[in-house]
Amino acid sequence: MTEIRLEVGYDEYEEGTRMEQLIEQLAAKPESREVVELTIGSWGQAYEDGPDTFMDTLIGHKDAFPALRKLFIGDMDSEECEISWITQTNLTPLLEAFPQLTSFWIQGSTGLSLKPLKHERLEELVIICGGLSKEVLADIRDAELPELRKLELYLGVDNYGFDGGLEDVKPLMEPGRFPKLTYLGLKDSEIQDEIAIEIANSPILDQLHTLDLSQGTLSDKGAEALLASERVRKLSFLDLNYHYMSNEMVKRWQTSGISVDVSDQQQSDDEDDWRYPAVTE
What we know:
Blueprint: E1 3-6, H1 10-14, H2 19-27, E2 37-40, H3 52-60, E3 70-73, H4 92-97, E4 103-107, E5 124-128, H5 134-141, E6 150-156, H6 166-169, E7 183-189, H7 192-199, E8 210-212, H8 220-227, H9 230-233, E9 237-239, H10 247-254, E10 260-261
Parallel strand pairs: 1-2, 2-3, 3-4, 4-5, 5-6, 6-7, 7-8, 8-9, 9-10
Helix pairs in contact: 2-3, 7-8
Region (Disordered): 260-281
InterPro entries: LRR_dom_sf, STM4015-like
Protein name: Cytoplasmic protein
């Protein structure tokens, strides 16, 4: 039993089942010591209640999960709770409780905090949301994650939580902040062109094998800067899927010799040039 998913369905919640009960039941089984990946799905009324309702229970039973390496908090679909409605909290106590974690995934950003963000072994941090606040971006900027290899952030839009700007994202492009980082995802953004132009010639590209700028509002403007960059050409992979580039620009990428994903081309509103990231509400 290496991968476990816990979730409370609507009917179960109405009948009185709570996530903390499921955690206690799992922790009581000898098999809990073999759990490598634990995914927490819907905990019932996530639009009102955050992980505070069960986090203390999970931390209290931390010794029952000595093999735990990957933890995902908030894996639920839109029928269970829209991504922008998922209530989160300060999740750093979980990182403190599980010092052997190598992967931490979070879905939803309402009320999310990662302060202080410190972990000696974490290699992967992924936050999926409709909008990431500048406070959380600052938490990540100030983090002490010496083993971090992959950082994937859905930046989103201002209507659903993104209240920052390029100045809040730029620190994450600084080389050496995370010395072992090889995968950087600054994606699902309404300022994807600005990010692309800023990072196109950043020295951080020299340490990356993958740059992920997918699922955002990238247009020819940002793509032009990327295509002109010698540093971009040295990447092992560039992910630009879900974009607003023209047919001509897509063809230029396809003949560039760069390993790049330019699938899922979108069309903007012809009158007002409205462009939307893939994940918002």
